Amino acid sequence: MLKRYFGKGFSYFMLIFCGLIMVVPFIWMVSTSLKSQTAINKGSVGFIPIEFVNYYVHDGKKELCEIVTEEEDLTVINIYDNDGKTFKESYVKVPTENIKSSKHLKFHWENFKEAFTKVPFGRYFLNTLFVSFSVLIGVLITSCLAAYAFARMRFKGRDFIFYLFISMMMVPQPIYLIPSYFLLTKLGWINTYQALIIPWIANIFSIFLLRQQFKTIPQDLFDAAVIDGCSRFEILWRIVLPISKPILATTAIFTLIGSWNSFMWPLVMTSSDNLRVLQVGLSYFAQEASSSTALLMSASTFSIAPLLILFLFAQRQIISSFISSGLKG
Amino acid sequence: MRTKKSYFPFGYILPAFLIVFAFRLIPIVLSFIISFFKWTIHGPEEFIGLQNYIKLFQDPGFWQSLINTFYLVVFIVPVTLILSLFFANLLNRTKKLSGLFRTTYFIPTVTSLVAISILWKLIFSPHGGLMNHVLGFFSIHGLNWLSEPRGIFTLLFGTIGINIPKAFGGPSLALFAIIIVSIWRSLGYNTIIYLAGLQNIPEVYYEAAEIDGASKWKQFFNITIPLISPTTFYVLLMTTITTFQVFSQVYLMTGPPIGGPLGTTKVIVYYIFDIGFGESQNLSYASAIALVLFFIILGLTMLQKRLEKRVQY
Does any CB of chain B come closer than 8 Å to the CB of residue A263? Predict the structure, then answer.
């Protein structure tokens, strides 16, 4: 009995420990994004954005100030105006004993605004949304059609084409990156949206997943539909697709996550600022603003937020999608 | 009833076929051709035969990138397998909160590698990074993580005063940081895959073993491990393939110069990228390296498939 409780306790301890390792970096990211750069530079590493604030206390008044130099009995300060940003008086010499400092919690939400406007992240978001949804629609159309034919039709060369597709699926992206770059250059597609969309609107893995699903649909259903006078396309549209909604959702989720997060391809195929997708924009921002860690963390936070929110809402569906694809692939 | 001839099945495949043909098949065939030519962005210039492949063997940069990539595989694959099976087992035994754990473990998997790399670069920073701050509690100070070219074994044995020959120094600390991030990112995914595998093992086997008086460890090694082996092969294969393709972490975490201290984080895909799109823009040589990578991955896939057949239960 005791051993069993010990075992349970150990399990939970390890699981919680591992869970913390998974989320603590993200919590740290958000907390760093809310600190002021000055606080970070002064060595604030902790999770709570606490800052030391200095006050100049005189004649019963408390005024926010910034210390310029500090000596034993005289301190040079800049006194802030009421807005807390501009100085009312600069380089004032005051007795050190009149300077009081206190800790207080301060969230610098303005970091998000600054990061978002420093480089055109709005544009990057729109680019990513446009590319992702175009790819998504394309993948759904081409995959449904192809999977339907592979699963339910007989024609010459069907299996050959299918195995050709499957063997192509095994080839990782870096291997065809170089020739693709050459090809897209010849097509004049470098620095265009086509380059980000068209090569990705057919996804072999989706075709494979959908084909497996379409194969499980009983033949009776098809026979009945044919008797009722349905055409091939009507059968797909009215019978096959409605009963395959879960697997279509899986395909959609995969495509969306994949294309939202894709990095190497858009990095190579586009160089113009106007065409930067979110991931590429973020990577350039990381190089340009490498010393502004607070802004960098803000940008990282808002760039992962949309997918993370989608994930939290549809986590059951998403996790089971990954599982089903994993076990079938 | 299926004799209505008024349709054209190939029409259904055509859209997908055109895309796959133009943007997968042609590039793959093209990369073979390119690797035998002197080839610029304008097209072929002259046929050079096997020159690129001969150059490859004499190129220390290529060998270094290959060794760095092998370090990644050797560290990431076994650790991922063991840890994910371990956590999947724990998850399988707990009923309460298991949904919450699954969700938290999965978060890194759906997060973009770009954001993750930027975040971890900061975590590993010696100036105000979280990692050194935490290690400080264990009296470990002053690690330079991403700018440390010395091998981890060199560092480890260095602390007790033993000098290790450079060849056995292991991956640099910078590369080790990339290993940590890669394991961290895929752990949740692999744990969930393992969990699904575990849940497919019928409970009766364990009940029977229990009656026979087999200990938990015996049950684990004699029931779980053999019955989970298809999942193990899947995780093994997928982790190996993805590890060979590590790019974003190297591109974003180490540098400038990218490729890490003394090039110790230059992995093969980054090397391809650098040769093809860096200063030299040598598309032809980059294609040759990409093809070598292709054959390494293909070879490993076939090897694992063969092993899988032999270890079938």
Answer: yes
First to last CA, chain B: 43
DSSP state of B111: S
A314 occurs within a structural domain: no
Report the gap between the CA of A289 and the closest CA in chain B (Å): 11
Q: What is the CATH number of the domain that holds A176?
A: 1.10.3720.10
Partners of A89 in the beta sheet?
Answer: A79
CB B168 within 8 A of CB B156: no
Which chain B residue is nearest to residue A177, measuring alpha carbons?
B27
Any domain includes A91: yes
pLDDT band at B174; cut points 50, 70, 90: very high
- The answer to whether position A62 is within a domain reads yes
For residue A186, tell me if it sits in a domain.
Answer: yes
Q: Which of B41, B127, B261 is nearest to A184 (CA)?
A: B41
Query: Considering only CA atoms, which of A141, A169, A199, A108 is closest in space to residue A328?
Result: A169
Q: Domains of chain B by range and CATH?
A: 59-310 (1.10.3720.10)
Among chain A residues, the shortest Cα distance to B191 is held by A323
Does A179 sit within 8 Å of B31, measured CB to CB?
Answer: yes
User: What is d(CA B232, CA A84) in angstroms, rounded to the nearest whole number?
Assistant: 59
pLDDT digits (tens, 9 = 90+) for B136-159: 999 888 888 998 889 999 998 988
ipTM at complex level: 0.91
Domain, as residue range, for A33: 2-38
Q: Could you give the C-alpha distances from B48 to B37, B56, B87, B259, B282, in angstroms and in order?
A: 5, 14, 52, 29, 14
Question: Tokens 């130099």 sit at which residue?
Answer: A69
A226 CB-near residues (< 8 Å, 6+ apart): A235, B1, B2, B4
Taking the C-alpha atoms of residue B254 and residue B244, their distance in angstroms, rounded to an integer, is: 18
The pTM is what? 0.90
A232 closest CB neighbour out of B7, B103, B105? B7
